[in-house]
Amino acid sequence: MNSDKKSLWKKTRKLFNDIHLWLGIGAGLILFVVCLTGTIYTFYHEIEETLHADIYKVDVPLGASTLPLNELITQVESSVKEGKATAISIPADLQETYTVSVQKEGERRGTSYLINPYTGAVMGNSKTASSEFFMIVFRLHRWLMLDTEIGRPIVGWATVIFTLLTITGLVIWIPQKVKSWKQGLKIKWSANWKRINHDLHNALGFYAAFILLIMSLTGLYWSFDWYRDGLYATFGVERPQRGPKGDDKNKEEKIIQISTLKLEDYLNVANTELNYAGDTRISLPSDDKPTISIAKSKVGFFAVSGRDELTLDKMTGEVKKKELFADEPLNHKIMHSIRSIHTGEIFGTFSKIIYFISCLIATSLPVTGTIIWINKLKKKSQRKVKKRGFKENRKDVAFAE
């Protein structure tokens, strides 16, 4: 590398180093909170089910079979009162409770009740003490426990800064000489604590950089409408509309349709069409809706999080629509999986472990980065003191002469 190129590279690195430093100082505390809460929330479901195994797990009686689904739903509705079941989830694991979602009038979101499928006993609901804690963690992660109109953009712009920090960090990390790459990829544990801290920031940041970019770029989906619209436009996917379509007032009176089929009949169709072990969710339709929706997803250590969906005729059980995740174009797969890509659920437990480690590293980066900055300030201060002392000594010598 000639002197001109070296000079240009030095200036470029200094520019990116300055950007990296001041952005990190400005958003460090917010990023620490966001990354820490993201780390804690990664295994929320697993922690919840472990802490409350008494409501999430059941003993399977020898030779026993599960009760009819309609009976289980009736059991939950009668115990809850003033609520209507909207869906029932059937896990692949025979030792897990079924989940019945119940919504009361005026509620925006319903409550999930856990029921023993062998006895019909309602074990409890998903609103536990630990779920309240994780809800606080979630609110901190999404909007810092502030009003959403204030907290969401703050977290959003901090995420934009995090993206820039990751990119500038990669540029700073790239060594000038090829032989220095190996040094940048490892941590010298035998060195002093300052060097170890420096290596932890550089090496771990490099290893986690790709996952951190995915986290930040997908996280912005929930922060800004313009970003969400831009993603759908970029991938060429129509953004789903919320709420009822059209004006119901101008529609003809709906026809009440009472089906004689049982939920097991629909479930049998779903298991035939989607012939694999997985978690199944049946959305219970209103009496005036002619179809019933069933979603099924695979389970396992490397299971892809995408769901297969069926729409069945409520009166006959005939398949009206079948949507397989594997058959979707790549752009649709990405946009339909944006949440699982962000949380690490995209490839089951395997990817969640990788995300957990990466998020833990992300939490450490503001800490190790701040320590590096403080050490540099101290070093600069010491140099100034030495330089001042040297000048004063020179003056004394000149005066003596």
TrEMBL record:
One Pfam match: PepSY
Keyword Ion transport: no
Keywords, in A-Z order: Membrane, Transmembrane, Transmembrane helix
Ranges in coiled-coil conformation: none
Residue ranges crossing the lipid bilayer per the database entry: 21-44, 154-174, 204-224, 353-374
Residue ranges occupied by any PepSY domain in the UniProt entry: 67-123
Origin superkingdom: Bacteria
InterPro entries membership: PepSY (IPR025711), PepSY-ass_TM (IPR005625)
Protein name: PepSY domain-containing protein
UniProt organism field: Reichenbachiella agarivorans
